[in-house]
Amino acid sequence: xxxxxxxxxxxxxxxxxxxxxxxxxxxxxxxxxxxxxxxxxxxxxxxxxxxxxxxxxxxxxxxxxxxxxxxxxxxxxxxxxxxxxxxxxxxxxxxxxxxxxxxxxxxxxxxxxxxxxxxxxxxxxxxxxxxxxxxxxxxxxxxxxxxxxxxxxxxxxxxxxxxxxxxxxxxxxxxxxxxxxxxxxxxxxxxxxxxxxxxxxxxxx
Length: 205
Fold this sequence. Notes:
Layout: H1 2-52, H2 56-79, H3 88-101, H4 103-113, H5 117-129, H6 133-186, H7 192-198, H8 201-204
Helix pairs in contact: 1-4, 1-5, 2-3, 2-6, 4-5, 4-6
């Protein structure tokens, strides 16, 4: 009874420590979120401005490159997490890698659709120093998503067709083996029962 009485306060203490740690982790995440939300939009807009340097053609090409590559590649990586043979740990790791690869487009989306002061400052920078970048990023991201969906559809159709072809080949080979076995059994002199019946003492006489 004393041991049970001692175990209960210990368990309560462990749960209290866990709750405190979770609350502290959530607080750190919230602070980090607001800090990054105030810094990243302006920083990313300045990065794009330095790359484009006010050139309209460069803004379009950069937007197309960022939008298409950093949408299609993350989707392809995330698609690998749908494999049933993978453990949940690997699936989570693949999803985190996909999110990390999509960071450039997520930052651009945060600027264009954000409502904070930092997002508005980023919009001004992109609108004056990297014209057309955001628009072509969105267009190319949508195009990449469409290409990915079509690729998945064609891949599923091809896989189902492959399964049907394998099933038909297997059934055809089974029918061929059955036909060969039947022909061999029907051939003269191949029936062991018939040979045994003819080789009797009466026949020998």
